[in-house]
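Predict the 3D structure for this chain.
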Amino acid sequence: MPLQNRVAPTGEIFAVAARGSLMGNRGGALHGSGKSLAVRRWATRQWICCRLDFNGRQREVMAPGRYTELFFLDEATALAAGHRPCFECRRADAVRFADAWRHAHAQTANPRAADIDRILHAQRLDARGGKLLHTYDVADLPAGAFVLDHATAQPYLVQPYSVLPWSFAGYGPPQPRPRRGPATALTPPGIIGALKFGHTPMVHVSACISG
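Done. Predicted structure below.
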């Protein structure tokens, strides 16, 4: 039976068999001794996305007393859920992300990870601890962001001229991207700013095929 450790762009965590291309965590253990999630969905503000392999390290998934390993279809999914690149195993990506963040926020130096986490955490969760949604004009959203169709609860990956329906297994056929109009963004504003200023997230191969 699959463990409950796959993250959707909405930030929700599901138990599905499909594998992810990135791992991550939310700062600590979210599971108990039976490898089932407890009530909480985050431990600290340090939500990161990591490589699946790094320096030959081997881990038991959801080991007792260890942080809960979470898995994502791709980096765009992780960013939409509110995770940022890890400064240890994805150092080059994290520095590139921080540089784009610096330009988006008109800062004179690249921010520390803790500063990014503080801002992102306020943009991730609403007063009830659920996903905080943000409204944009769809024309202002950069490629790599995610939007939500409220009628179907379907997340879509934004591309320059299309939007791609997301699933745990990959992306579906492209649909035309509206030119104007309100859109509900899943990706937090701080990350949208980084996407606008040059951070290009890794996306699943199905996005290249679909788009």
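The mean pLDDT is 94.
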